[in-house]
Amino acid sequence: MNIELVTTPNEELKESGFGSLKSCNNVLESIISKGHNIILTVCKTKLDLENIVKRKPDLVILAVKYLSFENKKNIWLSEYFDEHSINYTASSRDVLRFDSNKVLAKQHLKSKGIKTADYFTAIPQQFKKIEDLPISFPLFLKPIDAANGNGIDDLSFVTNFTEFKNKVESLYTQFKMPILVEEYLDGREFTVAVIETISGKLIISPIEIVPLSSTNGLRILGQKAKKDDSEELKKINNNDTRIKLTKLASEAFTGLGVRDYGRIDIKTNKAGECFFMEANLVPGMTLGSSYFPKACEIENELSYDNVVELMLSKGLSRIPLNKTIPLNNSDILPYTVMEG
């Protein structure tokens, strides 16, 4: 059986993915330790993808969603490998659009009755006065498609029309697309790692994220906090909170049609109500710091190697039986599961 881990030159990620080449090597070394044959391929051109198809790997692990070219259309890896009947990890192109566009994910889940923060989108000069805004202050502004906290800082929290206009202008100049404007939720911040097992059950790992307090008393989980790893990741000891988070994350995972694994971000208001915020379907995998493996470790005591093995289990199960190397799951039980 042959596996390829596919990434692109991505030191300055603007979208979700496993992370830098170092992060991909973390995953590579973990898979090698389990006895699998695997190579890491850094794709820069379409020819690199064509060569992968010629090699006909049994499983491709997608560490990024697409190949990006200047002045050319992006090549979505899941779509490309679907067209060439190559087995790959994680979700299809149709589902990954919910990762790349936070508004689409919110619209989709809201139509299914799943709570999300009220929102609208904005471009410069679209709203002329405060009375035109669909939601009252305070508001929180961020890019529609950026990951890793890009574009998010203390100025994302706005309390008046001047601050709103300035942040819309700033983000639009940087990202060249409409800005997501949400009602500001004044509660706590959580992330939930979800892995689908071969049997269809979900391993749910919720944790709380507590950013450092900024100069004005806010706790903003922005680009600087994520880059510095300054936020605290905490186990959830309140069982009622854990149940609410597990239920919402499971509903979001299923409602979006996610395959194999994904991370669901959730916030609460002061009353403790949970709201879906966004989905990260190609989660960061940096050893020792990325939220996805850390959540699994904190909540379910799963080692990094255990997490990687579980993430691959569904993909490996799609390989014809005469090629599959059985997984050894004896050392990764028990863990919290929910029926898919």
Description:
This protein has 340 residues and is an alpha+beta fold. The protein has three domains: 2-89, Rossmann fold, CATH 3.40.50; 118-183, Dna Ligase, domain 1 (2-Layer Sandwich); 189-339, 2-Layer Sandwich (D-amino Acid Aminotransferase, Chain A, domain 1). It contains ten helices and 15 strands. It has helices at 21-33, 46-55, 77-83, 93-100, 102-110, 161-175, 223-228, 239-256, 291-300, 304-317, and strands at 2-7, 37-42, 59-62, 66-67, 75-76, 119-122, 139-143, 157-158, 179-183, 189-196, 201-210, 232-234, 261-268, 274-280, 337-339. Strands 10, 11, 12, 13, 14 and 15 form a six-stranded antiparallel β-sheet that branches. It has a four-stranded antiparallel β-sheet with strand order 6-9-7-8, with helices on one face. Strand 10 (189-196) and strand 11 form a beta hairpin. Helix 1 crosses helix 10 and helix 4 crosses helix 5 (102-110).
Q: Mind sketching the topology for me?
A:
Blueprint: E1 2-7, H1 21-33, E2 37-42, H2 46-55, E3 59-62, E4 66-67, E5 75-76, H3 77-83, H4 93-100, H5 102-110, E6 119-122, E7 139-143, E8 157-158, H6 161-175, E9 179-183, E10 189-196, E11 201-210, H7 223-228, E12 232-234, H8 239-256, E13 261-268, E14 274-280, H9 291-300, H10 304-317, E15 337-339
Parallel strand pairs: 1-2, 1-3
Antiparallel strand pairs: 4-5, 6-9, 7-8, 7-9, 10-11, 10-13, 11-12, 11-15, 13-14
Helix pairs in contact: 1-10, 4-5
